[in-house]
């Protein structure tokens, strides 16, 4: 299959920076707060000295079941940062997460572009378009103008993709099994100026919700899926990606409109290749055309002196910047 393989890079920004990584750990700056936490992908040596790492404002240590943070007195229970034209509350959790997955920034940018692009909102049609394609674009333009671009975000967590879609003008249904995660996402929406955006916040098991939507004959223009390797629903429904992913994918395809726009799948610790996810999108490409992109999501180190990058490959000193693997993705769109 002629899919497009890529490495999507998140570089340093004003409120987020990967300062260093190595020896199974990463050192990150969230606003003015620097945190260190485990990362098994960092299978190389650190660049910064031990003394520099010890200057961090917080350090996460793994326990038998859960871990714990050792935080300095200046670190609040939560604090705001700006990232990707949105605002987020950062909260160190017992599972080492902070509520922000910066590697998803290129996907948010892709979603915004799709929702506001010619394919959905439609500027002027090219003179060489077929009449059928003109009618299709006209129909999408009319839907977009009436605010009818509808997106389903499964395993939505703290809402980055949901907010990016809403910011671009879509109606979004945000699903997560964690009540606290959905509340967190709503807080992020409020500080991002999206409190009144057309978002439905639902605490529900993803598979249960999708099955109900099929019965209700609901349809969506685009679907985002960010499944964990393992998890539980709000009433203890079991999720194992190796057992439940395929059936959920097939059910989600039943929720797509007659002329859908996109389908995005992300993966983290399940151990699969991006090709495995991309293979599940071939049916959409064969049926609707468009293209499939797949590859890795990575975060670029800022350099040994905390320098921001000039571009997405080298730092200011001209040396090759290290990239920290942070997940995989596969996405289909009509483009």
Number of β-strand runs: 17
Strand portion, in percent? 25-35%
* Main sheet characteristics: 8 strands, mixed
List SSEs in N-to-C order. EEEEHEEEEHHEHEHEHEEEHEHHEE
Radius of gyration: 20 Å
Helix content: 25-40%
Q: Distance N terminus to C terminus? A: 18 Å
Overall shape: globular
**What structural class is derived from the secondary structure elements?**
alpha/beta
Low-confidence region ranges: 118-124, 304-310
Strand order, largest beta sheet? 1-16-17-15-12-9-10-11
Average residue pLDDT: 89
SS field, number of helical segments: 9
Model description:
It is a single chain. This protein is of the alpha/beta class and 335 residues long. The protein has nine helices and 17 strands. It has helices at residues 50-53, 105-116, 131-145, 160-167, 179-191, 206-216, 241-253, 274-279, 282-288; strands at residues 4-10, 16-22, 25-30, 33-38, 58-61, 68-71, 79-83, 86-90, 150-154, 171-176, 199-203, 222-225, 230-232, 238-240, 262-267, 291-300, 323-333. The strands form four sheets. It has an eight-stranded mixed beta sheet, with helices on both faces. Helix 2 runs parallel beside helix 4. The relative contact order is 0.15.
